[in-house]
């Protein structure tokens, strides 16, 4: 069953609002590729109501299950290290803070 958050992310990906992210789990698991929301430092967020001060990605909780701090991801071919992973709101969406490497 597809959740509302998954439907929203699918719609956003279909119109080009999301970035492609690849995660190769450090435990040797199969690489995963999903579309994620991505914000970079000094990028407007919340329709101009704020400015992001760090790299972050957001995604539905059904994607990147098991992603944790110190793992590496690639967004549009650029490598980042995950600093922190946290659930957002009711837990159906996840936010990961990233550091460019």
List its salient traits.
1 helix; 11% helix; 6-stranded antiparallel barrel; two-stranded antiparallel ribbon; 101 residues; mainly beta
Q: What structural class results from the helix and strand content?
A: mainly beta
Number of helical segments with 4 or more residues? 1
What is the CA-CA span between the terminal residues?
Answer: 36 Å
The helix content, as a percent range, equals 10-25%
The H-and-E topology, N to C, reads as HEEEEEEEE
Largest sheet, in brief, is:
6 strands, antiparallel, barrel
The total count of strands amounts to 8
* Order of the strands making up the biggest sheet: 1-2-5-8-7-6
Mean pLDDT: 92
Gross morphology is globular
Poorly predicted tracts of residues: none
Share of β-strand residues:
over 45%
Query: Mind telling me the C-alpha Rg?
Result: 13 Å
Question: How is this fold's topology laid out?
Answer:
Blueprint: H1 4-14, E1 19-23, E2 32-39, E3 44-45, E4 50-51, E5 55-60, E6 72-75, E7 78-88, E8 93-100
Antiparallel strand pairs: 1-2, 1-6, 2-5, 3-4, 5-8, 6-7, 7-8
Commentary on this structure:
- The mean pLDDT is 92.
- The longest helix has 11 residues, at 4-14.
- The chain has one helix spanning 4-14; strands at 19-23, 32-39, 44-45, 50-51, 55-60, 72-75, 78-88, 93-100.
- It has 101 residues and is mainly β.
- It is 11% helix and 46% strand.
- The strands form two sheets. It has a six-stranded antiparallel β-barrel with strand order 1-2-5-8-7-6.
